[in-house]
Amino acid sequence: MASQAFTKNYRDHSNDQGFQFEFFCDKCGNGFRSTFKGNNLGVAASLLHAAGSIFGGIVKDAAWGADHAKDAFRGGAWDEAFKEAITECAPRFRQCTRCGQWVCPEICWNEKRVMCEDCAPDLQEEAAAMQAEVAVEQLRDKMREVDQTGGQNFTDPQAAACGRCNARLVPNAKFCSGCGAPTAAPKKAFCHQCGTEAPPGGRFCSGCGTKMG
């Protein structure tokens, strides 16, 4: 049998009962299935197996023989079925002469340019997409010009949760609503003599010994 074109992107759904193939658009992945073509040898083998499971004996032997006959003719039958599937499904696609892709004419083919939309994008679609993209960018710019913080003051250090009970804090809360603990971190103390930071509760400077307070 001569070699067949249009075999780049397909899936074989054939089984013992017959042959069926699905061909896909190289761009969007949409596809078409060929008409199911029955395999008479496969059907006969299945019937003999069913009968053999009931009657056994010579019927089982016949089923075994049918399997071997089916395997012997599988290659030629598959090739013929595949050829018919190609003949059936190829007209549903267009091949781009620039990149060689097979694409569906409904979505991925530019009829005006006679090429796929990867090689010759639809300008109207591109314009609509760009308008939407620019609109989103402009919306972001306008949103940045508006204060979205609701006038909240973020100059002081903020905590998301209470350090004592781990309850969630509302913005700018001075006390925890769960346990009442102050939310602000204690202010740091520095020696007025040498500027060394004093540890909490320290009475004398660790840098120069000056009395704190």
From TrEMBL:
InterPro entries: DZR. Residues 162-209 form the DZANK-type domain. It holds the Pfam family DZR. This is Zinc ribbon domain-containing protein. It comes from Pendulispora brunnea. The lineage of its organism: Bacteria, Pseudomonadati, Myxococcota, Myxococcia, Myxococcales.
